[in-house]
Amino acid sequence: MASERPPPPPLTKSDIAKEYLSAYNSVCALLWLSILGRVVLLVPITGVESVYEGAGDFTKWTQTVAILEILHSAFGLVRSPFLTTFMQVASRLLLVWAIVDQFPAETSTSPFYCSMLLAWSATEVVRYSYFVLNLRGSVPGFMTWLRYNMFYVLYPVGITSEAILVWKASAAAGEPWKWVGWGLLGFYAPGSYILYTYMITQRKKVMKGKQAERRSRAVTQ
What we know:
Elements: H1 13-46, H2 51-65, H3 67-74, H4 82-100, H5 104-107, H6 111-135, H7 141-147, H8 151-172, H9 177-220
């Protein structure tokens, strides 16, 4: 009589968290890939004026899902610093709900709305895909390179586009919201510096680790 196989070990809290984060990042990667595809298809076919109609609402709710990332950081589910996570998510929510949604005539048909979505979606497709692969313990070299090099171009494009949209909406707003908008623009320089330098620091850590790994392999061969 064949012996029965032992039951699989019970899932630990770490296992459950890993599976949840893998599912979350996979869904987010697909959502942002959909936004990227919509923008890339709509611009050459119908022009920048139709991008908001074709992707605006979808982008608003996709970005709103990222509120969960603030909670992930706050409760220690991920190692991302709470301040940088909060700043990035909050600034994007401000853009989609308080700027573009409230002032569509001034912002939604602007080419800077398209450039913002392209920068956001390209960044997020790579970022979430990298997280999924990293959780599975197998990240291809090209994905690591994209994750820690694309931001040099995409961050300035996204931040510049955001600032211009805030400026256009503020110019059309009445008192006192006009001054609130101008005040928000004053936070863009220090806020952008914090996010940008954080990514540069992360890149240095990762690249240094990759170099050490390659040297270790070379010694053992």
